[in-house]
Amino acid sequence: MDTTQRIACLADDSPKAQAAFAELSSRYTFIDISGKRTKPDVIVVLGGDGFMLQVLHKYMHRNIPVYGMNCGSVGFLLNSYHVDDLMERIANARRATLHPLVMYTRTTDGRERQELAINEVSLFRESRQAAKLRVSIDHVVRVNEMIADGILVSTPAGSTAYNFSAGGPIIPMNGKLLALTPIAPFRPRRWRGALLNHESSITFEILEADKRPVSAVADFTEIRDVASVSVFEDRSISLSLLFDPEHNLEERITTEQFSF
Prior knowledge:
Number of helices: 5
Distance between the termini: 38 Å
CATH superfamily of the largest domain: Probable inorganic polyphosphate/atp-NAD kinase, domain 2
Oligomer: single chain
Largest sheet: 11 strands, antiparallel
Number of domains: 2
Low-confidence stretches: none
Radius of gyration: 20 Å
Helix content: 10-25%
Strand content: 35-45%
Order of helices and strands: EHEHEHEEEEEEHEEEEEEEH
Structural class: alpha+beta
């Protein structure tokens, strides 16, 4: 058990997170995450799921494991907050590996852009009229014409978030699946989405894009007036989240499926 790890600590702006940061700083020595000479072994994150996503995006390419403690509301991606035994908790934590989605978009005026999503990629109608979409999986058209408020592709980590609220399935972390979930579908009326192999490539073509404009969102980055969107998992990027053994992410996903 290594209790001598170099720890950086980041807190969101909420009073609860700032109070937690002050309390922890009085007990433990944290290093500066922006320091060029010393790289942290672990980043401790104080906040909620939204702040955790921001930290994961910002430091995605530094390959530093992240240990979160909930100072927000839901805190699905974080552990419970306790000031005691922080180093021991980190040393004994279990690791969950996440891979982000790549969202590649082309807008109606021909601009191209690429963004990453840890939770989900979502398409939404921009106007009073429903979106009209064509859905292809691995270059095979599976839904020739869908009319709905939108559609999303979710990772296992994001499957308990917006995906679940939209009626999508919860996916175990080791399931190697992606959830394809329509948002308020009108046609096909009885289609409720699909579970796809994590190596699948999903393409959305926006039909009647001028009349029925659509925006695409990768976690919290929005691109408006898209003409087409392609989504696939980037296995070259690995994100490591650390969880207490009694509160690990795999168990939380399983428990969520039996919450009524």
